[in-house]
Amino acid sequence: MIYQELQNKSSIPVNEAADLLGMSPQTLQAGLKQNAFPFGVGFKGNGSSYYYYIHKGLFDKFMKSELTFNGGVLQK
Predict the structure, then answer these.
(1) 15-54 burial, b if ≥16 CB within 10 A, otherwise e?
(2) pLDDT by residue (tens digit) across 18-63?
């Protein structure tokens, strides 16, 4: 899926976000579980399952450098 196709969605799949960020899905998932990224979360479900959610609007801001890793707004 290309970036333009993601415009009408409210969330982004981990594989797509990882590709756009230039990292592996596993690295992104690890960061989401540790709350390292300001655009999504990884949380434990039943058993050993994890679920991931990447908020499209926040991801877009992060890609435009409008959010930092700690969630603060960059000063321009």
Answers:
(1) ebbbbbbeeebeebbebbeeeebbbbebeeeeeeeeebeb
(2) 999 999 999 999 999 999 999 999 999 999 999 999 999 999 999 9
CB half-sphere exposure, 31, CA atoms < 13 A:
18
In angstroms, rounded to a whole number, what is the distance separating the alpha carbons of residues 15 and 69?
Answer: 19
Q: Is-contact 62 38, C-beta < 8 A?
A: yes
The structure's pTM equals 0.78
